[in-house]
Amino acid sequence: MHDEALRALPKVELHCHLELTARHALLKELLAAKGRRIDDAQFRKEFLITEPVGDLPTLLNIFLGHRDLLDSPEVVERMTYECCEDMSANGVRLLELRYAPSFLCDAHQGLSPDAMHMAILRGIARAERDFPIAVGLIALLQRIKTVEENRYWLDFAIEKKADFLAVDLADNELAYGPATFTPLFERAKSEGFAVTIHAGEAEGPQAAQNIRDSIEMLHADRIGHGVRIMEDPEVLEFVRERGTVLELCPTSNWLSGVCPTRESHPFRKIMEAGIRTTVNTDDPGIMNISIMDEYRLLRDAMGFTAEEFKQINVWGREACFIPEDRKAAVWP
Ligand SMILES: [Zn+2]
């Protein structure tokens, strides 16, 4: 499939962290406004992750560097709009963006989470007017926060139920297993939210089991990553039988050390084991990729065909939490 046909293929993007999508031009502008001149080499070092990062503190610092620049509703609105614009230019018709209100607002005490949220909604509304794209939001809870803190942010999402499709849980899955968060996700489900959970991403014997536990204990409708699924045949069979969709993010998985090269990502193995797989970017701004880069990787390194790409997007469309009428409006 040539690049242009690949770009035109209607796509679904299910796993993208809004806070980490800022275009490089936007970040550089924000730095300049703070009086910081930065050359390309320094920008790369401070703001991008383009090689596997061995230690967590370095990775976290880069995340925080992005977040700290997002210091006004205007900036957040622009970032949201530009993210949707870039996705649409690459053929994405259905886009789910997730963000953690706790993460976005922690650094900016003077900013109201409500104002930031409204800015995101404005960015989405403008993009939906300008491009053939339907965009939905997911509220992300953080494992590193206490259950009490997360309850606060779940209440925030419930208050804005009309704006959020689903609730997610992210951060270190090995240190903070699913069991602690069961009451929160029981509540999220009873409030009518869909659920997707980051699981089966970290290196460790528990990771694959976390996929199953997230489905059984946290009612996950989809799994964020789940790339470690091949490490446990019983979990593989469980997920295959249920038809649970995995939100795979090849470049991100390589950068976090799941596979030694991007090309050796187990995407095809997982799909051929009978699992419903989808292609996603995770953190396109910070990882310096677009959704097209991920499709090119699958085409060039793993031999994916047009038929296979279509199949992946059929699964993606079915698993997408955006209501059917909104899907049909942009993708008849
Ligand atoms: Zn993620």
How does the overall form come out from the CA principal axes? globular
Q: Give the fraction of residues assigned to helices.
A: 40-55%
Sheet with the most strands, sense and barrel status: 8 strands, parallel
Number of domains: 1
Unreliable spans: none
Strand order of the largest sheet: 1-2-3-4-5-6-7-8
**Annotated CATH architecture:** Alpha-Beta Barrel
Ligand identities: zinc ion
Number of helices: 16
* CATH class category label: Alpha Beta
- Measured distance between first and last alpha carbons: 22 Å
Q: Write down how many β-strands occur, each being a DSSP E stretch of 2 or more residues.
A: 8
Mean pLDDT: 95
Order of helices and strands: HEHHHHEHHEHEHEHEHEHHEHHH
CATH superfamily: Metal-dependent hydrolases
Computed CA radius of gyration, to the nearest angstrom: 19 Å
Going by helix content, strand content and strand pairing, the class is: alpha/beta
